[in-house]
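User: I'm putting together notes for a lab meeting next week and I want to include a structural view of one of the chains we've been expressing. I don't have a solved structure, so I'd like a prediction I can at least talk through. The sequence is below, exactly as it appears in our construct file.
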Amino acid sequence: MTGRPERTPPGAGQTPAESGATPPEAGRTAPGARPAPKGAERDTPPSRGVLSPMMVRTTGERIAERFVTAIALGQFVPGQRLPTERELAAMLSVSRATLREAIARLAEAGYVTVRRGRSGGTFVTTGWGPESAEMIRRTLSNEWQELESLLDFRQVIEQQIARTAAQRRTDTDVKAIRGALLDYERAGEDRDSSRMADLAVHRAIADATHNPHLTNLSLSIRHDISFGFEAEPYSPEVRGRALHQHPVLAQAVIDGNPDQAAALAAEHFSLTESMLRELHARVMLRAGTTSQEPQE
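Assistant: Thanks for the context. Below is the predicted structure for the 296-residue chain, given as structure tokens.
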């Protein structure tokens, strides 16, 4: 629509202080105004409006809530030492001061313990706390539509990566894939080792496409799906299923079967999707709301 924009009269939408006008003194009637009925001051509650206190969550608080969500998903497990402050700040693209605020909040709430000294660090102490459901709800609900789009995008991309890898793999790629599989089997239940080995398996398959853009895209999606922590949701049951699915997927790539590789990739990456959906449904049920709840 074209034309000259409407002009806003001077002072429109401004408070008396902003417009320069002097408000009438308390208790006095402005010139030309009808006096208020007797007793109106007592019967009419004071208007709070924009002057009412607002609860604004800091970035540190939001990061703490993201940690609680990651812990609930098994990205970090009780007893595990978190990455260093420098590493976490880089992963999450926040300042170290913001990260310290988040860790302090987690420690105060009992989710982590901070130990000093050469063997110190920040260690996860519990997977669930009294405020977990609400903190997770705020993290997931506000981003749920974006997460669903990202999960769908990942399915498309990872299937294409598996298909392309099956078409282009070389003997060198096959050796790298088999080595990564062996490392994942050897990792056992050690969370850090399992995380790195899982990444290596999928990195080896992506590298077999011989297209660095596909490899980088896979890594970028993994980062975003994991809320910046670069770790897939984890549980002993999920690891058991991955121990079965990894070799089957890898073999389809090695055998040069594109259709089977794509189908197996779709099945495998649904593990993360299922865990996210289950956690979301769980916290929404506790809150007595639905997934269509308005965003904060």
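A couple of points you could mention at the meeting. DSSP finds twelve helices and two strands in the chain. The chain has two domains: 59-136, 144-283.

User: Perfect, that's what I needed.
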